[in-house]
Amino acid sequence: MAHFCTKCGTAHAPDARFCDECGKAVNAAPAPAPAPVPASAAAATPVLSGVKRRHIMIAGGVLAVVIVAGGALAWLLAPEAASAGSFSRAIDAHLAADEAVRDKLLCLTNLPYQKEEIRVASYDSSTRQWLDILVRSGLYSAPVEQGSGGWVAQSQFVYALAAPGKAALRGDKLCVAKGVKVAKVSGYDQVRDLGAQHVAMAKATLTLTDEAAWFAKSPDRALILQRLPDGDLEVRLPMALVDKQWQVIDETQMSQAALTGAIGKSPAVQGAGMLDKLKSAFSFGGHPAVGKWQAAMGNVLEFTRDSVINNGTSTKATFTTNGNTVTITPQGAGDAAMDIIVSDDGSTAQISMGGMRVTTLRRMRD
Questions:
Q1: What SS3 state is found at 214?
Q2: 206 — alpha (psi -120 to 50), left (phi > 0) or beta?
Q3: What is the DSSP string of 99-125?
Q4: HSE, side-chain direction, 13 A CA sphere, residue 87
Q5: Can you tell me the distance from the alpha carbon of 207 to that of 328, in angstroms, rounded to the nearest whole number?
Q6: Which one has a higher pLDDT value, 220 or 365?
Q7: How far is CA 262 from CA 39, 125, 259, 267, in A?
Q8: What is the DSSP letter of 83?
Q9: Are residues 202 and 185 in contact, defined by beta-carbon separation less than 8 angstroms?
């Protein structure tokens, strides 16, 4: 059977590979058809791609979690920043944990309140005025005047503790509230570095919580508040960064930090005036005698952080504090040092020079 070139039509032998006329390839073997792909293999391909995608997504998610967790861990391990929030938290925790500290702020101990009766001499007008305030608050009955008898007859006023007064007592103390918390705080911007220890002196304005019913309703609430040891409800507390958190510390710990560079590093003995030197490092530091006082003769004295003002004349002075005693050393030539011993409730003080009592001062309230 003859075979013809599909291009030019020239006949060629059955086994010819090329056309003798035009040279076109003839009898070329057809390209093999692609082998059919099994259905199972066709289905496996997209499944493997999905697994790879999931692996990539999981790996990316794990990496993101590691990054976020690392950032959170770094945040948790970082020391607490000095701020109004951190100082308020530390002071509130300190006040909530220590009942004795709260009582010192919230309770009156200037009279033997636990007694059924308090007898006051007729000439003691100051004590009588104070007890009259408590009478108006319902804690004592109206006073009864009695004669004292004896060689020199004197009249006394007897104040009997009423039922509301008994209910208001906490031991031998008369307390105006159960709690106190920080309303405003400063000092967090004045952190000092004592070697390895960060310290600060916080000044906090406090507010009462859970006030006693008699106190909240008293017509003389403001006058009673002034009689508290810190009548202005302002306190100064030493702070330190301990275990990466700000905490209220005591004077011994503050001195230890100054001597060793870290609280708890080793025992330390408080040197003379050490705490005063530390307090003086903070610009708002003061002393218990700061304020205006009236002497027995009527003249007015005012003490600031660095001056004594007597009837309008100001004299620079150095103040050294030891507990409730403030030693004042005027800077003028020939001026002698004097001591002011402030009472526990801060309402009165005694001035002495050379160990001899000079006069009594009474704090003036604005």
A1: helix
A2: beta
A3: HHHHHHHHEE-SS-TTSSEEEEETT-H
A4: 26
A5: 32
A6: 220
A7: 76, 52, 8, 10
A8: S
A9: yes
Backbone angles phi, psi at 41, to 5 degrees: -70, -40
> Measured between alpha carbons, how far is 20 from 320 in angstroms, rounded to an integer?
128
Q: Is the pTM of this model over 0.90?
A: no
From the centroid of its chain, how far is CA 64? 36
Tokens 């700061």: give the residue.
Answer: 290
Element housing 68 (H / E): helix 39-77
- Residues listed for the chain: 366
* pLDDT tens readout for residues 117-139: 999 888 888 889 999 999 999 99
Give the position of tokens 């409800």.
233
* 3-state secondary structure at position 250: coil
Question: In 169-261, which residue ranges form alpha helices assigned H by DSSP?
Answer: 213-217, 221-226, 251-260
Burial track 192-217 (b if 16+ CB lie within 10 A, e otherwise)? eebeebbbbbbbbebebeebbebbee
Burial 148-158 (b: 16+ CB within 10 A, else e): eeeeeeeebbe
The β-bridge partners of 202 are 237
The residue to which tokens 């304020």 are assigned: 291
Residue pair 155/148 in contact by the 8 Å Cβ criterion:
yes
Amino acid letter for position 175: C
* Residue 197 pLDDT: 76
Distant-in-sequence, close-in-space partners of 95: CB < 8 Å, separation ≥ 6: 101, 102, 105, 179, 180, 181, 206
- Tens of pLDDT, residues 177-222: 999 999 999 988 888 876 667 888 889 999 999 999 999 999 999 9
For residue 119, list its beta bridge partners.
158
Phi, psi of 13 (to 5 degrees): -65, 155
